[in-house]
Amino acid sequence: MKIPSIQNHRRRAAAGILAIAAVGLAGCGLQPAAAYVPEAGPGSLQVIDGAESTKVTVTSKQFTEQQIMGKIAVLTAKASGFEVGDLSNVPGSQPARELIATGRADVMFDYTGTAWLTYLKHETGYPDQKKQWQVVHDQDLDNGITWGAPAPLDNTYAFAIKASSQDKLKGITKLSQIADLPVKDRTFCVESEFNSRQDGFTPMLAKYGLKQGAADGVPTSNVSVLDTGAVYEATAQGACNFGEVFTTDGRIKSLNLTVLEDDKKFFPSYNVAPLFRTELVQKYPQLEANFAEVAKKMNNETFIELNRKVDVDGEEPADVAFDWMVKQGFISAK
Questions:
Q1: What is the pLDDT confidence band of residue 277, given thresholds at 50, 70 and 90?
Q2: Do 111 and 67 belong to one domain?
Q3: Are residues 49 and 149 in the same domain?
Q4: CA gap 269, 271 in Å, rounded
Q5: Helical H runs in the chain?
Q6: pTM of the model
Q7: Rounded to whole angstroms, how far apart are CA atoms 252 and 172?
Q8: Do residues 256 and 163 touch, judged by C-beta distance below 8 A?
Q9: What residues are paired with 109 via a beta bridge?
């Protein structure tokens, strides 16, 4: 990806300010300017009897993928017949979760691994997608939260290399093959959070037989700790051989990076699924069914492309979400 323009920086900064304002405005019954989505006509999603008498508030986190998902959730709820409040684009996982947990928001898309490790405070996650979803679903029922059917999309951590480096690195395709490389070639770019997570860098290396900081493992001098966006650019430019990435990031494709297989299944599953305040879907079970129809179409390849449209092409998340929903036939353009 090219370095973002000043215009894009300003757009993202403005979005952040609007997201913070959104939480305060919600208490006054006002909608923030960031609540815009294009007007949609009917599609395949079923309008629910009685929904027009109920207001449903949607939230999401602030990064690109979540901004797109927030608008998909808004459009799905509107197509279902509800009056919709839009509190998407909230800075941080915990503040967005808090809106759901306290009943100030009713619906969001979130990640099973994040819920298990961050919200529900478990030490380790499950690489098996069905198992990870099930344990999160079962435990969150006690919090008045119901997880809907998961999407195929699994935005977990991974390591990628510059595609043109594969020959130099002995045709590497799997994380286990890093240990076969000379120490000088075991160079990594990671973000600071990943460097200290329990599902992060040090335990990942240990799983693959390498010790961080060891002269015969991965010496400290071989590791660059960078901002998230800088990791992708640094890897593409050859500043390191292995860059930490998110598996649905559009920059993987635009920068011609190749994701390595996590062949020892270290990283937990981060499947996306819609979650709801339980009392809402008890009253309107068809809403859960409508979201399940949408979630079925949300996969890694789709979101690599949708994320790219925002991060690389500079399109607005609301427009990207709308165009995708129309293409899938869930709604129609007016």
A1: very high
A2: yes
A3: yes
A4: 6
A5: 6-26, 64-79, 93-101, 112-114, 129-140, 192-196, 201-207, 228-236, 251-254, 278-283, 285-295, 300-311, 317-328
A6: 0.81
A7: 17
A8: yes
A9: 274
In this structure, the answer to whether residues 49 and 132 fall within a common structural domain is yes
pLDDT tens digits, one per residue of 311-330: 889 999 999 999 999 999 99
Amino acid at the residue 293: E
Judgement on whether residues 125 and 214 belong to the same structural domain of the protein:
no
Identity at 2, one-letter amino acid code? K
Length of the chain, in residues: 334
Domain that holds residue 44: 40-154+270-333
Rounded CA separation 223/31 (Å):
45
Number of domains in the chain: 2
In a domain, 16, yes or no: no
Distance CA 50, CA 304 (A): 36
Nearest to 76 by CA among 19, 37, 115: 37
C-alpha–C-alpha distance, residues 23 and 60, integer Å: 12
**Can you tell me whether residue 269 is helix, strand or coil?**
coil
Residue 218 has pLDDT above 80, yes or no: yes
